[in-house]
Design a protein that fits this description.
The chain has about 525 residues and is mostly helical. About 80% of the residues lie in helices and about 0% in strands. Helix 1 runs parallel beside helix 16 (about 335-375), helix 3 packs antiparallel against helix 12 and helix 4 (about 60-70) crosses helix 13 (about 280-305).
């Protein structure tokens, strides 16, 4: 066993023990459905802010986006991190946090689907929303498991990837099933601290690598980079140092919009606002969460932008997905301090992904146990049974995502590439307009969900028939952005053309904003 493997195992053991203890500690606070799903609406600023930030950034951001965009675009890719912090975090908290907390409390809504049902008086919309969450978020979690397993496999090449995925699945299940949202909020706080320390240390280590030359010489060395023979993109130093992405400006803008505005319609992100305890906590949480996202988002893309210098312009054998893992081994692979830091970074990436996984699993499980089954069966389910059912489905979804990830099913990867845009494209219009306007009708909200779904589905069908499904998958960011825009426009337009038949009920709902 190498030193890197030994230190990683020790760090993983300590981390697992802490997560298990938090799960056990939180069990007493999650014995009711309200406590299990939204922490009794009593979660503080720090826990909520870190829960929002850690759910936002998974290992996919580091290994996938930061590696790929940093390699191909260079320093301009940092704008994605800035956009995520300002648009996806700061603006989201300012515009939606307080209104979401007040309205969902007034409606006694614990999930996105339940919010739609009670805001628009529509069980059909509740069922449709629950199905969309189930179809597109569960495969996403499977893909994240798979990515983490591959990452640990790089440090432990003799251990099968599925072993690491099983460890991750079991660890997630223990504290999620035991403690519910309370456990995830406090584990996210611990995970967030690890992520902050890890990213700061990693940025320092990467910038001081001999090929990078420190902060002073980084841009100068990057500007001198010359494309190696055989590079299909012919990336040059001029491209890599272009502050606005150079020829990739349009691509950069689309990804900023997708990954920033996309959070405005994702149930696993919005759910954090249901649980925060008061307005004062929201004000503090806004600042804390934004600072967190600036450090993590900008740090990740800054690291990615150094990759061509660190790796000498040679793309690793595994392609862009192997850029960050290879960079880590290059920068931290030698010396005791570097190996210890490598173990910390591995836990950082594990923390980033587990926080996303727990949020996705909890959202998906509640969509079926709380929203779908009681509505379809048309039977009243006792709170105790519903609580048990939710825990069982959390276990079931963890198991399903693990099984899917080990089967190498191509559709999982395909669904993952569409999930962010589809889910947000369907929900963003009905969710946001429902918070701000009394004139939004049930038909308008339904039209918003369907328009987002049909926009992505229709575009995928047309592109696939003409150029193949891989071409459609490559266009998924543009589809997601268009779907979100269409949903935001369709909801008010259709509402203007239809009548709201329950104005008294809507007035009563909006009275929540006139109260503390």
């Amino acid at each position: 066993m190498t030193d890197a493997q030994l230190y990683t195992i020790i760090a993983l053991g300590v981390y697992a023990a802490i997560m298990a203890l938090i799960g056990c500690f939180s069990y007493g606070k999650s014995k009711t459905l309200d406590g299990f799903l939204i922490g009794g609406r009593n979660i503080g600023a720090w826990a909520t802010a870190f829960a929002y930030g850690t759910t936002y950034f998974s290992a996919v951001v580091f290994v996938g986006y930061a590696g790929q965009h940093g390699w191909n675009i260079g320093i301009g890719s940092i704008w994605i991190g800035i956009g995520n912090a300002v648009l996806g975090c700061l603006l989201s908290w300012i515009l939606f946090a307080n209104r979401t907390r007040k309205m969902t409390k007034k409606l006694s809504a614990k999930t996105m689907a339940e919010y739609f049902e009670k805001r628009y008086d529509s069980k059909g919309m509740k069922i449709l929303a629950a199905l969309i969450i189930f179809i597109f978020l569960v495969p996403y979690s499977a893909a994240v498991y798979k990515g983490l397993g591959s990452l640990f496999g790089a440090v432990f090449p003799s251990v099968e990837t599925w072993v690491w995925m099983l460890i991750i699945a079991c660890l997630t299940a223990v504290y999620l099933v035991a403690g519910g949202y309370v456990a995830t909020a406090y584990t996210d706080l611990v995970q967030g601290i690890i992520m902050l320390l890890g990213v700061i240390c990693l940025v320092f280590s990467v910038l001081n690598h001999e090929n990078v030359g420190g902060i002073a010489e980084f841009m100068e060395n990057l500007g001198k980079f010359e494309s190696l023979p055989g590079d299909p993109n012919h990336v040059t130093g001029e491209q890599l140092t272009s502050i606005f992405g150079g020829s990739a400006f349009k691509f950069l803008c689309v990804n900023i919009m997708l990954t920033s505005f996309g959070t405005w319609g994702l149930p696993q992100m919005i759910g954090k606002f249901y649980a925060i305890k008061d307005t004062a906590a929201i004000k503090r949480g806004t600042i804390i969460s934004t600072i967190f996202c600036v450090v993590i988002g900008c740090g990740a893309y800054l690291i990615g932008s150094t990759s061509r210098l660190v790796l000498g312009g040679q793309l690793p054998q595994g392609g862009v997905d192997s850029v960050i893992p290879t960079l880590l081994m290059e920068v931290l692979g030698g010396g005791t301090l570097g190996i210890i830091l490598l173990a910390v970074i591995m836990i950082l990436l594990l923390s980033a992904s587990m926080s996303t996984l727990e949020a996705v699993v909890l959202t998906s499980a509640s969509a079926v146990a709380v929203d779908l089954i009681p509505t379809v069966s048309k039977k009243e389910i006792k709170p105790e049974k519903q609580m048990l059912l939710t825990r069982v489905f959390c276990l079931a979804f963890v198991a399903c995502s693990f099984i899917f990830a080990t089967q190498n099913i191509p559709i999982i990867v395909s669904l993952m590439s569409f999930s962010w845009g589809v889910v947000s494209g369907c929900f963003i219009g009905p969710y946001i307009w429902g918070l701000f306007s009394k004139r939004i009708t049930k038909i308008g909200a339904f039209a918003g969900v369907l328009s987002g779904l049909l926009t992505v589905g229709g575009a995928t069908l047309v592109i696939s028939l003409n150029s193949g499904f891989s071409a459609a998958a490559a266009k998924s960011p543009e589809m997601g952005v268009i779907a979100m825009a269409v949903s935001m426009v369709v909801v008010p337009v259709v509402s203007l053309l239809t009548k709201n038949k329950d104005t008294e009920r809507v007035e009563e709902i909006f009275s929540c904003y006139s109260k503390n």
